[in-house]
Structures are given as structure tokens and as C-alpha cells.
Amino acid sequence: MGRLLKHALGVVIASAALSAAQTACGADYELDVDGRLVSVKAPPPIIDGNLGALRFGGDHSGARLGRVRLALAETFGEIWTVHLDASSWGDRDKIPAGLTEGYLQLRPYPRAGFRLRVKAGAFYAPISLENRSSGWESPYTLSYSAIDSWLGQETRTIGAEAQLDWLGTRTGHDFDLGLTAGVFGWNDGAGAALANGGFTFTDRQSVLWGRVGKPGVPPVKSAEPFRELDGNAGVYGGLEARYLDRLVVRFLRYDNEADPSVVDRVSHTLAWRTRFDSAGARLDTSSGWTAIFQWLDGRTYVDPRGSYSNWPFRARYLLLSKRFGERHTISARYDQFEVQGSGEDDDGWQKGHAITLAYVFRPGTRWRCTLEWIRVTSTSYNREEFGDGLATAPQTQLQLAVRYAFGSLAAD
Amino acid sequence: MRPYARQIHIRAPIHQPAAVRRGYLRPGALLLGVLLPGVLPVAQSVAAPLSVSVLLPNGRPLAGAVVTAEPSPGPGHAAAPVTAIMDQVNKAFKPDLILVPVNSTVSFPNSDTVSHQIYSFSPAKRFQLPLYHGKPYPPVLFDSPGIVTLGCNIHDEMLAYVVVTDAPFFGRTASNGTWSVDAPNGVYRINIWHPRIRDEDKDLQGEMTVTEPAGGALQLHLKKLLKPAPLEGRPHSWDGY
Known about the structure:
The structure holds two protein chains of two kinds.
Chain A lengths: L1 H24 L2 E14 L20 E15 L3 E9 L9 E9 L7 E10 L22 H9 L2 E10 L8 E11 L6 H6 L36 E10 L3 E9 L17 E12 L4 E14 L6 E16 L3 E12 L10 E12 L5 E14 H6 L8 E12 L6
Antiparallel strand pairs in A: 1-2, 1-16, 2-3, 3-4, 4-5, 5-6, 6-7, 7-8, 8-9, 9-10, 10-11, 11-12, 12-13, 13-14, 14-15, 15-16
Chain B lengths: L7 E3 L7 H4 L5 H9 L11 E9 L10 E6 L11 E3 L1 E2 L4 E2 L2 E5 L2 E4 L8 E7 L2 E7 L8 E3 L3 E7 L6 E7 L3 E4 L5 E7 L1 E8 L11 E6 L5 E6 L20
Parallel strand pairs in B: 2-18, 4-8, 7-13
Antiparallel strand pairs in B: 1-18, 2-15, 3-14, 3-16, 5-6, 8-11, 9-10, 9-12, 12-13, 16-17
């Protein structure tokens, strides 16, 4: 509770500073404050050095900070925009607040049916189909799917991305098509959390150069996904097809191109070679239904001094949601996930499924109230080895979140 | 011009009141002419109702379809240019379609607090216009006939149309699927358009004869189902990614 008060004070100071800055430079901004009431039955989360599969765990039941988020957008001329998105999650990361995204975007006007968009900085690759709200949040649930929780924890494009779209719907056709290519660095640590803690269900996104946590290790020494250890640039390429405003289909192949034999001499951090394919589809209907399917399949491996270890992983989910007017949304999601272990003893394997149910109420554009229940049932090598004997017990979490948004962008 | 499409039928002459048969406009039509710039009072003494109906494959009427009527053989005289307004309200174009005679001007105000960047790359009119809040721009001249598709470079979900026509008679079908105007005796080429129609252009054309006093009526049955209507009611903040 003391932590909550400290953050609330921080919010007040930040608001005052922000108002001054906003008046001075005229940028659009948004400040979100998200408070939670939590009832959880699960081991403490990975950021606290344990093996919980949820954002909260251990003695976290009670009032918690969900997120404090400050977003700024400033346009230069007509086609250049800077986006900054900073958050604090009120947990034990070494960085109490930081940027989840920060980038410069070039957005020239479309010509002859084609449109190019270029981003440089730090941002999410176009994979998630549920996290479609500002701040990379899901409008359906509080906890992201296993896939998107992992992407939010361990991946970020710190580099550049170009997206070329053919705008068929602007030339009388039913389809738009898009091609995306990205090149990035500082992601050689991606995969460590997956191999150590497996998939989790959280809305805590790692801030840039923040830490994820590692089971059995205090957070100060925990996994750092945003490291550049070998100088190799990672790449991804994706395709997107849209049918009117109804259906979106995406595919993306990602490879951080890390050299798995590299070990940082000072910190002894390993470079994790992580590559995956992802695919998904999202259907919106005129009666307010949304169906989302996402699939992820890949592997992460290390090979320091010839001791090769490999963790294939895969996850998928189906989300169904029904919107009643602009105010009420009810959603249900079913996740399946698996990390195959490495070596003869299957070190690090994990397998499970989860059910998430959520109701979102938006009384206006600024308020959002969410009630969510999630249950994760999984078995895990690490929990059997290092846990407290509850290796297969279901983990449940009930959250009530109330969020208020200030600022010019919040009126969207 | 291809012969009548098979789905187009000329109706039997319709009984009209004597005042209409005598050749001048009904008071109602005159009022319509004032409200809709494209429906001009007809100067000729010989005029009769020209009526076009658009029906969906299931027989229900299609409202909002654009209908243009040109004398055949042409060319006819385009209607007088007008000044129209396409506003931006709550991250949407309002209205989502305007129909204007060639050489009309359209002004693009911005009633939103956020900026918009309006563009068109349609051959009939290519332009781009940044709409900052409270900063007016001169109206845009639409000097070529055609369909001009409008988008916003910031908000992808924004979509609207300016239909520019050089036909002397034009309008949109009402909720009963019918548009009508009083036109001089003669043969007319009819064109139909609607953003949700999938039928090919050749199936959306026809010819009809207007003969005083009964006039002429033309009915077009669409062969294909409409495209789905744009989604409504979604929070605008949903598509940041």
C-alpha cells in the first residue's frame, strides 16, 4: 500500500511537470493511472525471483498499482511524428519507470495506391492482434495471452522497420496488403525468460533495458532481454492482408541472429539465439463479435563453450469477445503453451493451458473498469525442481482494475 | 452503349396527375430542386418523371445509391457547380459521400480536436490536405468527373467519397430504393454507383426513354450481394497497432 501511495505521489508530480511541458511544446499527451484490487493464489511472479505464471503472486493480494503510463506524440511538419510511451509497473525491476516504446515515424502520403511507413527507435513488431489499444494494451482482457505476454517481456524492435502497404480498399477493391521488414539490435537476451520460467500471463511489459526476472535469482541479477552481445543485427519480415475492416491476417518470421556461443565476459550473460514464426487472424463482425487466433512456434538455444542447450517453444490461443454498444465488452480466451526441455533431463520444460474471462466497462472515453479472472494450469520442470511442491496446482488470479486517462490523446 | 442489361426493365407507363402531364413541375419537385443542387428545375415545357429504382438480389431496395442520367446521344450540359462541405467529426468523414456536379468546390473543415491529413490518389482528383484544428483551408475544386476516394493518412479507418458528375440529372435513391426527377422527353443513359455494390460497371448501366406524359421508369436488380457496411461503434483507440 505504501508503494501505491509513493506511486500516486509520483503521478501528481508527473502531471504537474507534464502540464507545464505540454503547454510549452504543444505536444499531444496521455497520462493513464490504473489501480487494481487483486486476489491471487499463485507463487510469486518471476520478477520477484519465483515461478508464478501470473503477474501477481505470493502475498500480492490487495491494492496494487496496475500501470502508470505517460504517452507523448509530437508531429514535425506533416509527415514526421515522435512517439514516446513511458510506464511504471510498481514492481521490483531495477528501473522503476522507463520507456516501453520510443520512436520516430515517417508517414508520407499514399501515392498511386501504395503507402510507405518507416519507424526508427524502439517499438513492437506487428505481431499481436489482441494488443490493439494505445500503450500496446488489450481492450479485451487485463492479462495478455501467453504469446503476447512473452513478446511484451522479452522482445522489442530496437532498430528500424519499413512497412509498404497496397491500399486496395482505396481503389475499389476489398483487400489491403502489407509487407513489413525490420532490423534490430539489443535483443540478444530474448529467450532466457522462456527457457527459465516458461510462458506467463501478465500485462507487465518490460521497459527498455529493464529486466524480466529469473526463477530462483533475485531480480537484480535477473534476465536482461535488451542486450547486444555479438554485434549481429536481428531481422524480421512479415505479411499482412486485410479484408475491408473485417478481417486481418498476419504472418511474421523473427530471428534475433544472436551468436549462441557468445558469453559476456563481465556479466557472464549468454547470447540467446531466438527465432520464431508467428501467425494470426482477427475477425470483427458488425454485430460486435471479435474472434482472434494467434499462433507462435520457435526455439531458443545457447551454445557457450560447446555446451549446447535448446528449448523449442510453441503457444496458441483463441479469444472470443462480444461488444455491447461502446461501453460493455465480455471476452473469453483459451491459451495452450509448451516449452520443450533441453538435454536428457528435459531441463526447463513446461506445458499447460489457461482460461481467461473478462468484462470491460467504459463509462466514457477516460474511464475504464475491468474485471478479470484467469486460471493457469501447467506443469513445469523448474517448479518441480525448485518450487514448493505445487508443481501442477492451478494458479488463479482475480483482478478489478480502474483506469483513468488524462490528456489530449485520451479523448480518442 | 450496350443494349439494356437483362435485369433492367422499363415499366409500363404510370398514371400521373393532369398537372404533371401538362408538362411543368410539381411543387414537390420544385422543393426537391432547391434542396438537391443536382435536381434542376427543367426549363423545357415538355417534361415528365424519370424514375430509377435499385433493388438488392433479395428484392429489397438499396438506399443511397448514386444515379446519374445523361441524354443519349450526348453530350448533355452539366449541372451548375455548387459548394459543398465534408466535415471531420469524431474521426469520421461527415457525410460519408457527397455527390456534386463537375467544377464544384468542397471545403474540408475539421470539427475534431485531433489533426487529420486528408488525401486522395483517385485519378479524378489527386490532393492532400493537412487539417489542423482551427486552421481553415480554401475549398478544393473538383474539375473532373469520377469517383474520388478520400482517406486520412493518420486515421486509416476514415473513408469517404466525393462523386463528381457531368450529367445534367443526378441524385441518390431514397429509403424506398428510388430516385426520380422531371426530365425532358428523350432517351437517357443511366449509371448507378454505390461504394458497397460489387456488380460490374457494365451491369450498372442502362438506357431508358422518357415520354410525356407518363415519363419512364427503370428498375435495376443487383446480381451480387453488397459488401459489408463499415463497422461502427468501435472505440477509436482500438487500432493503434
